[in-house]
């Protein structure tokens, strides 16, 4: 039997890819619209001015991050101890219930800020279990030689859904606020069904498994001691905490560029469009040389594009800059994701993926908090410009603190085998 040349030739990977696409489409659409509703309700129902309403977006990000922070160790352990399909399906079904609740409450016109914050926190708690398990499935269903292509294809699923989800959500929301949430609930149910159709997937187990608390500590210790992994994970954490502009897109859509929910959907999807195009290219022509330096330079371009977006007052130019921002971020994400996966033993992959996912979530949700606070002090434009400049500074510091990153020439595994 011929060896596959592409992950898409593997039936289980096709199911996995589609499940990932549907889940991301649904959840990204939900998150964008929850942000818009929060800002709109704060302005319309609570009479808040722009800085006060922008600060509510920061609080919304914090509400999502707190359960992620608290549950990440448990989520990583679950991905390494239980059937990874079941963990992902559980997460999707929990999010299905949240989407259905928002559908009903929106239809009844019963949403307010406390309810939105509570639902956002529940969403954060549901998604924290999906990330480590979903990320760990791909290396179990494709051979190692195809993993870089699989990671690029995973990114295409993520980024394409991140384009289509917000754009479709914004258009449907303009027609009826309940429709996009109903669609999200249906897609999450379909995603859970596809994941369960895969064969059982469990991590490699040690002969004498440690106590769960010791397993969690082992994952944290391993990541801390592996400077290469630590540098990869924390670069994203601190650069995106400062450089993330997406939390303030409702402010730009409603009050600066004045393009409404449809424009918000297009702006939210623009970074993902740029990222999807780059991911498509990388699926055919994966990067192979000087990967560390390219990752660092990609973050610099991300920061510069963020600064330019903050200054822009032209909607079309803003869309272009957001696309460039997403393209640069995709290069960084692809390199970092491949390095982390190939430099982590399978029995540790769930816990390390959970720590990496926590860093990504922290960068997103705490980045939203930082953006909201900065916008209350500096205004939306000042907050975005400050954040982009901060991402560039962080990259320079990390290139100095972690020379292992800039010296990485290929994706070859560099982790040390754990001592008995």
Question: What does this entry look like structurally?
Answer:
This protein is mainly alpha-helical and 420 residues long. The protein has a single domain (8-200, 210-407), classed as MFS general substrate transporter like domains (Growth Hormone, Chain: A, Up-down Bundle), CATH 1.20.1250.20. Helices cover 81% and strands 0% of the residues. The protein is built from 14 helices and no strands. The chain has helices spanning 11-44, 50-81, 84-107, 113-141, 147-175, 179-196, 212-225, 227-243, 249-256, 260-284, 291-311, 315-342, 346-401, 403-407. Helix 5 runs antiparallel to helix 10. The longest helix is centred in the C-terminal third of the chain and has 56 residues, at 346-401. It is globular.
Quaternary state reads single chain
**Average pLDDT taken over every residue:** 80
β-strand percent reads: under 5%
Radius of gyration: 20 Å
- How is the CATH topology named? Growth Hormone, Chain: A
SSE arrangement:
Layout: H1 11-44, H2 50-81, H3 84-107, H4 113-141, H5 147-175, H6 179-196, H7 212-225, H8 227-243, H9 249-256, H10 260-284, H11 291-311, H12 315-342, H13 346-401, H14 403-407
Helix pairs in contact: 1-2, 1-4, 1-5, 1-6, 2-4, 2-13, 3-4, 3-6, 4-13, 5-10, 5-12, 7-13, 8-12, 8-13, 9-10, 10-12, 11-12, 11-13
List keywords for this structure.
globular; single chain; 81% helix; Growth Hormone, Chain: A; mainly alpha; 14 helices; 420 residues
In short:
The protein is mostly helical. The protein has helices at residues 11-44, 50-81, 84-107, 113-141, 147-175, 179-196, 212-225, 227-243, 249-256, 260-284, 291-311, 315-342, 346-401, 403-407.
């Amino acid at each position: 039997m011929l060896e596959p040349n592409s992950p898409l030739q593997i039936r289980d990977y096709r199911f996995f890819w589609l499940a990932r696409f549907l889940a991301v489409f649904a959840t990204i659409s939900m998150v964008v619209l929850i942000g818009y509703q929060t800002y709109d309700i704060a302005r319309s129902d609570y009479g808040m001015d722009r800085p006060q309403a922008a600060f509510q977006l920061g609080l919304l990000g914090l509400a999502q991050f707190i359960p992620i922070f608290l549950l990440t160790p448990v989520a990583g352990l679950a991905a390494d101890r239980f059937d990874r399909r079941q963990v992902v399906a559980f997460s999707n079904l929990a999010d299905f219930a949240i989407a259905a609740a928002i559908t009903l409450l929106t239809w009844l016109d019963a949403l307010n800020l406390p309810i939105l914050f509570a639902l956002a926190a529940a969403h954060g708690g549901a998604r924290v279990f999906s990330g480590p398990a979903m990320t760990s499935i791909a290396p179990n269903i494709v051979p190692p030689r195809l993993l870089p292509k699989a990671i690029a294809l995973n990114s295409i699923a993520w980024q394409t859904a991140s384009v289509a989800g917000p754009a479709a959500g914004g258009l449907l929301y303009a027609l009826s606020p309940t429709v996009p949430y109903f669609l999200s609930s249906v897609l999450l149910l379909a995603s859970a069904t596809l994941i369960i159709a895969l064969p059982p997937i469990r991590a490699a187990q040690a002969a004498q498994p440690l106590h769960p608390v010791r397993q969690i500590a082992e994952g944290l210790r391993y990541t801390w001691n592996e400077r290469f992994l630590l540098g990869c994970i924390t670069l994203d954490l601190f650069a995106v905490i400062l450089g993330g502009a997406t939390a303030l897109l409702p402010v730009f859509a409603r009050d600066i560029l004045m393009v409404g929910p449809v424009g918000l959907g297009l702006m939210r999807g623009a970074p993902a469009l740029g990222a999807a195009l780059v991911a498509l290219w990388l699926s055919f022509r994966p990067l192979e040389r000087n990967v560390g330096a390219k990752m660092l330079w990609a973050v610099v371009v991300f920061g510069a594009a963020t600064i330019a977006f903050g200054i822009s007052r032209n909607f079309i130019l803003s869309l272009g800059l957001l696309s460039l921002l997403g393209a640069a971020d995709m290069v960084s994400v692809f390199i970092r994701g491949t390095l982390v996966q190939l430099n982590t033993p399978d029995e540790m992959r769930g816990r390390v993926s959970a720590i990496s996912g926590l860093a990504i979530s922290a960068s997103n949700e705490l980045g939203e908090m930082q953006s909201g606070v900065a916008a209350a002090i500096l205004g939306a434009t000042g907050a975005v410009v400050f954040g982009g400049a901060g991402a560039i500074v962080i990259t320079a510091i990390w290139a100095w603190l972690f020379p292992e990153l800039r010296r990485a020439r290929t994706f070859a595994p560099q982790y040390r085998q754990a001592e008995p």
